[in-house]
Amino acid sequence: MSIVWEQLEQYQPTVLKMIAKSLQKGRVAHAYLFEGQRGTGKKDVSLLFAKSLFCINRNGYKPCNSCINCRRIDSGNHPDVHVIEPDGQSIKKAQIETLQSEFSKTGVESNKKLYIIEHADRMTVNAANSLLKFLEEPNSETVAILLTEQYHRMLNTIVSRCQVLSFKPLPPNAIADYLKEQHIPSHFALLAAHVTNNREHALELSRDDWFAQARKIVLQLYEALHKNYLQALFIVQEQWIQHFAEKQQIDLGLDLLLYLYKDLIYIQLGETEKVVYKDQISYLNQLALTLSQKRIAENMTAILQAKARLNTNMNPQLLMEQLVLKLQEGLTFV
């Protein structure tokens, strides 16, 4: 699917605004460093930028997405746009040297050339030094775009020669909309979008049977917490411990539980548009009428404390049993 400026502008408005200004004023830098978490659109924006530079029928700063250059960049076949990825675990010196050799030649169709280096922080020392020499002697028609999730691992001398654009974590609603476009059911899309701000991870998670079962167990535990202490303990012992086997999984499970209590607060505040478990709204509405905000806040604090204690050597089953006790003791109904 073709990369659309308006869609990326929703995700990264500041970055797109800066790029648009550079294109409008004809002041494109010779090197950019796109830094930010995985799944924030760095690669998409770099290809969109490339299309804007090479588009035959550009409308202001926006590419037409239909000319031969735009189509070839979308398909990865433009002769003057080169993408370098790690060879195994790292980017080798030979890859940078090949790039330098390629860029010493005249452009196939114009003098413009652009290269994108993915995971630029994975360059070996020799590769980084070779790139540094390349950046120190920029060709006026050459543009470099370096992508990294590990900004702190980049050589300061490379960073100082680039215009750094920081990509912000995506808002949950934007991720949820993306997941729905991939035919993920709404109730899974919204929940996955809240537990990670990474589009790719959210997509993997929402397609995983483990995640669907995790959601089911959390809902069962939540219902039991407000009905039967022994049933809640039984769910922890017979289902939770087996399913949430690793610390990272337990942490995710606690997040899923925390969002249910957050939903109660949103309902009590009349902000139902912020509710994550929208398919449970009828049940949550009933519960919101019976619990005080103070009690909900105390339960949320108890869950956050349990998350903090995960990093200790505490037994996971004991941790969860104590949490169940804490969530049930002294329930104050209004």
Describe this protein's structure.
With 334 residues, the protein is α/β, with parallel strands linked by helices. The chain has two domains: 5-169, P-loop containing nucleotide triphosphate hydrolases (Rossmann fold); 208-328, Zinc Finger, Delta Prime, domain 3 (Up-down Bundle), CATH 1.20.272. 56% of the residues lie in helices and 8% in strands. The chain is built from 16 helices and five strands. It has helices spanning 5-11, 13-25, 42-54, 68-75, 93-103, 125-136, 156-159, 172-181, 186-195, 199-206, 209-225, 229-243, 247-268, 281-288, 293-309, 316-328; strands at 31-36, 81-84, 113-117, 142-148, 163-167. A five-stranded parallel β-sheet has the order 2-3-4-1-5, sandwiched between helices. The termini are far apart. The mean pLDDT is 90. InterPro entries: DNA_pol_HolB, DNA_pol_III_delta_C, DNA_Rep/Repair_Clamp_Loader, P-loop_NTPase. It catalyses: DNA(n) + a 2'-deoxyribonucleoside 5'-triphosphate = DNA(n+1) + diphosphate. GO terms for molecular function: 3'-5' exonuclease activity; DNA binding; DNA-directed DNA polymerase activity. Residues 244-328 form the DNA polymerase III delta subunit C-terminal domain. Keywords: DNA replication, DNA-directed DNA polymerase, Nucleotidyltransferase, Transferase.
